[in-house]
Amino acid sequence: MAATRTLGGYLELARVGNAVAAGVLTFVGAFVAGGLGSVGAVALAVVATVAATGAGNAVNDYFDRDIDAVNRPDRPIPSGRVSARAAAAFAAALFLAAVVAAVSLPPLALAIAVANLSALVAYTQLFKGLPAVGNLVVAYLTGSTFLFGAAAVGPIAPPTWTLFGLAATATFAREVVKDVEDVAGDREEGLRTLPIVVGERAALSLATVVMAAATLASALPVVGGTFGLAYLALVVPADATMLGATVWGFRDPSTAQTWIKRGTFLAAAAFVAGRAATVIA
Ligand SMILES: CC(C)=CCC/C(C)=C/CC/C(C)=C/CC/C(C)=C/COC[C@H](O)COP(=O)(O)O
Ligand SMILES: CC(C)=CCC/C(C)=C/CC/C(C)=C/CC/C(C)=C/COP(=O)(O)OP(=O)(O)O
Ligand SMILES: [Mg+2]
What we know:
CATH class of the domain at 157-281: Mainly Alpha
Bound molecules: ligand LD7WCAPV, geranylgeranyl diphosphate, magnesium ion
Structural class: mainly alpha
Mean pLDDT: 94
């Protein structure tokens, strides 16, 4: 029983759902770039992404353990399911796994991996407490999965940049809503997040404008001929969910950010369906 509880603690520390989802985005990036012929490179890129995302989540919880004791006492470290020391060792092992997986990829992909791993290590201590900067870093990291997957198999083409932009802008909006949710604990820790600096309503207004722009821009892959009806069938409800949830953030930021996340995962499925349909067609 204790072993299951500890294993669950490590899986939760890595936020394995996010890590696998990030790996899917890297796969889509390679898929959109037409590079599934390079199975080895695609597999290494996906493994590097999953390991890096897990490492970033684990090191974030390690550095956030005091804030989380206020905001999220049920998380693995504050709840005692994983010790801080073990969490740090786990993060280091995942970072090493990401480096080992990325080191034999093409130069541009390796450069993206080095930049991203550095940003993940630095995020919590350097960027998170700066207004909007932490949100922009997480937004870039999430969108960069598409660039990383494409760079693993060849040059990065315009359709991949579109996917990068969509994922980054939607993620930025959700991060702002998450910061509104965490204002209490962040203020206690002296973090200068966007809602603390400009106020919660102004932050939520910015998140709404950014999310509206992202949802409008989600038509670009169809306009550009990258995706067709299979993509639209999923991205339209995803857009409605993400935008509607962002507006709901004025009433209940916690529920809002959870539903934005669900919308982004549906949007990721739209990318997969859109690309798969072009192969089947
Ligand atoms: C308008 C449009 C079509 C946007 C595209 C949205 C899209 C596909 C976004 C990507 C979402 C996704 C599947 C991300 C992978 C998981 C990940 C790395 C998320 C970053 O999470 C950072 C967050 O702070 C973690 O918090 P939590 O999720 O609460 O654990
Ligand atoms: C492509 C490669 C090699 C790497 C990409 C790695 C990815 C996709 C990173 C995505 C973003 C990520 C996992 C960031 C880690 C830090 C993190 C969990 C930020 C959010 O944490 P907080 O701002 O503290 O909020 P919560 O802890 O409450 O979620
Ligand atoms: Mg945190």
